[in-house]
Amino acid sequence: MFLATTAIEDFWDKASEIMFLGPWCIPDKICMESIDSTENKIVPSPWYPPAKRIDAFNYCYSLYGMMITELSARLNKLHRVSYSDKYWQILIGPWLFL
To answer: Domain residues of the chain, as ranges?
Structure first.
C-alpha cells in the first residue's frame, strides 16, 4: 500500500494500492465517489470526533504548564538569575506552546 501525501501524481507509486492522507491529496480531476468505491481510501482523521481535539489541547496545555515551571527553574540556574515563572512564560512561552 502506498500513502499519498500530495496531490502531485508524479510522486505516487501507481503500481500499489493508494491510501490518501487527506482530501487535499486528491487531484481535482479524480472524482471523490470513485475513490470511495475503489480500493483507494482516505486515512481517517485522528481528530474526529471533535472531543479528541479538546482532550489533546487540554493534555498539551497541562504539559506546557509543567514544562514552564521546570524550564524556568533550570534557566534561572543556568543564567544565575531568579526570574519568575511568568517572566519565562512571556519570554519562551509562545515558542514552547507552539
So the answer is: 2-42, 50-97
Angle at which helix 50-79 crosses helix 85-97, to 10 degrees, equals: 130
Q: In what helix (H) or strand (E) does residue 36 lie, and over which residues does it extend? A: helix 32-37
Task: Encode pLDDT of 55-98 as tens digits.
Answer: 999 999 999 999 999 999 999 999 999 999 999 999 999 998 88
Q: How many CA atoms lie within 13 A of 55 on its CB side?
A: 7
In sequence order, the β-bridge partners of residue 20 are: 4, 42
Extract the C-alpha cell encoding 75.
534557566
Report angle CA 82, 88, 92 to the nearest 5 degrees.
Answer: 145
* Burial grade of 71 (CB within 10 A; 0-12, 13-18, 19 or more): middle
Return d(Cα 45, Cα 25) in angstroms, integer.
Answer: 14
